[in-house]
Design brief:
Blueprint: H1 24-30, E1 37-43, E2 46-52, H2 56-69, H3 89-96
Length: 98
């Protein structure tokens, strides 16, 4: 994907239909190897293209599967939580007017 590149400046041509080719060097740096979608915006006389990550869905699904496999407990069963007025049912009910 994007390596730590601060600035690349290359000359391009735009044809009569407004099409341009993104140079291979830029595609390589940005990790564009296949068809991609992007968002084009105009700021003054600058055109900015922000590419949309096509693998986002796959990465979210992988993350979700990894999270489901994790065995996480908030507190170990041996740990005793000290009771205080902030944690007692009686205090909470009294504050709620129950």
């Amino acid at each position: 994907m994007v390596k730590n590149v601060e600035h690349i400046k290359l000359k391009i041509k735009i044809d009569k239909q407004g099409r341009m080719v993104i140079p291979s060097k830029v595609r390589r740096v940005l990790g564009i190897y296949d068809e991609m979608e992007g968002v084009l915006s105009v700021r003054g006389r600058k055109i900015i293209i922000e590419f949309i990550d096509n693998n986002l869905k796959e990465r979210v699904e992988k993350w979700y599967e990894d999270m489901k496999r994790m065995k996480v407990q908030a507190f170990s069963s041996k740990e005793v939580i000290p009771k205080s007025k902030w944690m007692s049912d009686e205090y909470a009910k009294r504050k709620l007017g129950l």
